[in-house]
Design brief:
The protein has 360 residues and is of the alpha+beta class. Helices cover 37% and strands 23% of the residues. It starts with a helix and ends with a strand.
């Protein structure tokens, strides 16, 4: 109906501006063909469509570039602190607490995650703006310290009870993104920051990770996915590797060793899926993960594979894998010693993620 309204508005604009151009056009063009249109215009209820078109224009005009859902008000200034860190904190202050970053890697916002941990304990990822102040942060090891009056044992019900309804949609430019309601995560706008709570579906829906992104950073990120590049591919790979080890260490498991040869096998499978538009552990030649590892000359006693597709970042990919029981078993298996990760993007910039776990 809105498209009809716009079409009619266009036609009516031409019709009612007719006095401005008809006098000059009649010298060159026979305008008798407009007589049926005159009759049609007289027969319709013009006001109805003009009002509809006007209402639609006002709706689009008044919406900001990024808009929260109408059922979630901005939460009050109650302060956001995550393991002694706050948005706007200086990099030098962070390094006094956590030391130098163990890794720096590009993320989907075209910013750099600085990864801090002590052998994957106290795991944090922090992004800085051009002034070296914090504009985003993440942890999948929520501490015992209180966060907005919540702690690591808090459930999704606790969060909804305290913070109210989460954001249901984000509008960027002329695109409205409807957020999934599968119960795996919720998004809130708090103190001009977007806060995402991730939940562990296999541990009573308790908080399993928290991401905080400054609102201006999200506003500047107009697309669904990051801009594909070799640097972003590498960033996603190393982030997924680090996130996996952080999840393992939290549960008392050993740290996996990064394996570049296995990462190459994983990367080739992600690229194959992206190029040929499929998503499967078995490739189009019928080769399983084990076949592909063997073809690349890798000898193993245990091996397994995790795949993810379409998640906007390594963080969302990892949290989704943790909520899938089969993939979770691979991530938390005591049998594995090594991990290789490979990512790729298709022509629509959609990421494909492959994890290959193995033990020699």
């Amino acid at each position: 109906m809105r498209k009809i309204g716009w079409l009619l508005l266009f036609v009516l604009a031409i019709f009612f501006s007719r006095p401005l151009w008809e006098e000059y056009s009649v010298k060159y063009v026979d305008l008798s063909f407009l007589e049926p249109i005159d009759e049609w215009i007289d027969s319709i209820e013009v006001a109805q469509y003009l009002n509809e078109a006007k209402a639609y224009w006002m709706e689009i005009k008044d919406e900001p570039a990024t808009k929260i859902s109408s059922n979630q008000e901005k939460l009050p200034g109650i302060g956001i602190e995550l393991d002694q860190m706050t948005i706007g904190m200086k990099k030098s202050e962070i390094e006094k607490i956590h030391g130098n970053a163990k890794r720096v890697s590009l993320n989907e916002y075209n910013l750099v995650w600085h990864t801090y941990h002590e052998n994957y304990q106290n795991f944090m990822m922090v992004s800085y703006d051009k002034n070296n102040t914090v504009n985003a942060m993440f942890t999948n090891q929520p501490s015992e310290s209180s966060f907005l009056g919540l702690n690591m044992d808090s459930t999704r019900d606790d969060i909804l009870s305290k913070l109210g309804e989460p954001i249901k949609k984000l509008k960027k430019g002329n695109i409205i993104y409807i957020l999934p309601d599968a119960g795996e995560y919720d998004l809130f706008l708090i103190d001009e920051n977007y806060v995402t709570f991730f939940y562990d579906l296999h541990e009573n829906n308790t908080i399993t990770a928290i991401q905080i992104v400054k609102k201006s950073v999200e506003n500047n990120h107009q697309s669904t996915f990051g801009i594909p590049s070799e640097e972003l591919k590498k960033g996603f790979e190393f982030q997924l590797f680090d996130l996996t080890n952080a999840a393992r260490v939290l549960r008392g498991l050993s740290v996996l060793t990064y394996d570049e040869a296995v990462s190459d096998t994983a990367r080739k499978h992600s690229e194959d899926m992206a190029i040929h538009n499929y998503f499967s552990h078995e490739n189009l030649n019928g080769k399983s993960p084990f076949n592909r590892l063997e073809e690349d000359g890798l000898v193993f006693s245990y091996a397994g594979e995790n795949l993810a597709y379409g998640q906007t970042s390594s963080i969302f990919a990892h949290e989704g894998l943790m909520n899938s029981i089969g993939h979770r078993k691979n991530i938390l298996s005591a049998d594995y010693r090594n991990l290789g990760v490979g990512t790729a993007f298709n022509e629509q910039s959609t990421p494909y993620y492959t994890e290959n776990f193995y033990t020699k």
